[in-house]
Design goal:
Order of helices and strands: HEEEHEEH
CATH architecture: 2-Layer Sandwich
CATH topology: HIT family, subunit A
Strand order of the largest sheet: 1-2-3-5-4
Radius of gyration: 17 Å
Number of domains: 1
């Protein structure tokens, strides 16, 4: 099956589409609203019940999101995941997925967290080279990350 066309990143007047949704100026099906965040049903769901949690304020990526807001975004996602499990929607598990940057699959440059209900054979796959790495290689990576904190 061919990949669907990319979602529009901006509204016809040039605004970030997620900013417009968060402001109530573009359509969405809301599952959560507060002063800082909204939760919506994904327009192109991986599975039925696929949700997005996004800040009302525009932050392009995870690095731009204040740490307190990032923690709150995950707390909201955790509550929404529990709510999905309490519905009659098919849900044998949940993935929380955040694509940070184009190379990671981020299509709309407004940070957002996916809450994806999972079940066997749902079609969502992360296909990677999961081989065990050499301990020296892992230690070198750890050192680089510690030094960059």
């Amino acid at each position: 099956m061919p990949k669907p066309p990319p979602l529009p990143e901006t509204t016809p007047d040039g605004r970030c589409v997620f900013c417009a949704i968060a402001a109530g100026d573009a359509p969405a099906s809301f599952v959560h609203e507060d002063d800082e965040f909204v939760g919506i049903v994904d327009l192109r769901p991986v599975t039925t019940g696929h949700l997005l949690v996004l800040p009302r304020a525009h932050h392009e990526d995870l690095a731009a999101l204040p740490p307190e807001a990032g923690a709150r975004m995950f707390t909201i996602a955790q509550r929404l995941a529990a709510a999905v499990r309490r519905t009659d929607l098919r849900c044998d598990g949940i993935n929380l997925f955040l694509a940070d940057g184009r190379a990671a699959g981020q299509e709309i440059l407004h940070v957002h967290l996916h809450v994806i209900p999972r079940h066997p054979q749902d079609g969502f796959v992360l296909d990677a080279d999961w081989r065990i790495r050499d301990r020296a290689e892992l230690a070198a990576v750890a050192e680089k990350v510690r030094a960059a904190r």
